[in-house]
Amino acid sequence: GIGRDIHEIAADLRPTALDDLGLxxxxxxxxxxxxxRFGISTDVQLIGPADRLPLEVxxxxxxxxxxxxxxxxxxxxxxxxxxxxDRRKDELRVIVEDDGTGFDPSKLSGLxxxxxxxxxxxxxxxxxxxxxxxxxxPNIGTTLFMTIPLSGQDAGx
Length: 157
Description:
By secondary structure, the chain is of the alpha+beta class. It has 6 helices and 5 strands. The longest helix is centred in the middle third of the chain and has 22 residues, at about 55-75. The chain is globular and about 45 Å long.
């Protein structure tokens, strides 16, 4: 039926690293690989419990983090990236900060936003009730704040 088809599509989109490692270790593995590839050092801090989250939350976050780091590699001229994954009782916060060239957010037209993949990230997060905030200034670097609410009833399961 339809439910099964949707499940299969979700499985296709699902990074196998998540299944194999869980979200925390999948993020660490991705960052380590990314550092090797681009030579930009990543400092990863994972705060809070490492137990599994709802699958759609894990996928959205993992993809958003990939997208954020790929932006840094493409546009930022950064030497260092810091990623904080902070899981609280009722929400998840991810902060990705780089020391690259940055930009003036007030000049971020729709075109630039989509070029930076920000609109895709924002869409993914907002589907889960979350949000994306971008702080940047020329020559200071860029910080992305992502939040996703976690519903209370999942906390115990």
